[in-house]
Amino acid sequence: MRLEVARASRFARQEAERHFPVRVRIAVPPGGLGRQLAIMHAWLDDTCGATAWASAPAGLAGVVNDAIAFYFADPAFAHAFVNRFCCGYRIEAVAGAFPVRTEPPAVRRGAAAHKTP
Predict the structure, then answer these.
(1) Which of 11, 54, 90, 110 is most exposed by smallest CB count within 10 Å?
(2) DSSP secondary structure code for residue 58 in this structure
(3) Is 70:20 a contact under the CB 8 Å cutoff?
């Protein structure tokens, strides 16, 4: 069974890399992504469209679920994804992967009304 899962993961990664030129690799926290993964998928579908992105396991051989890769057809979508879901105060690779943001981004506030004299 484990060998079949490894083959399916490798096949998914190869297909995504062949169809999508941009990859963002995310480190999975020890407790997993939980509901955050469903939120990410919903955001990706709404923002990019269901056919403009893919995801696949991106961990090291023998390490289960330590990283996930998101693949994009357009670099602008990858950039928006990193800005939305990765730790914005320190976007840096940790062992080649971005850490996942644990808090939602700040809500944008509109500017106050301005009257000219």
Answers:
(1) 110
(2) -
(3) no
d(CA 18, CA 42) in angstroms, rounded, equals 23
Q: Is residue 59 a contact partner of residue 65, using CB atoms and an 8 Å limit?
A: yes
Beta bridge partners of 98: 26
The predicted-structure confidence for 58-86, as pLDDT tens digits, reads as follows 876 555 567 888 999 888 888 899 888 87
What is d(CA 40, CA 79) in angstroms, rounded to the nearest whole number? 14
| Cα–Cα nearest to 24, from 85, 89, 88 | 85
Q: Is 61 exposed, middle or buried (0-12, 13-18, 19+ CB in 10 A)?
A: exposed
Give, for 23, the enclosing helix (H) or strand (E): strand 22-27
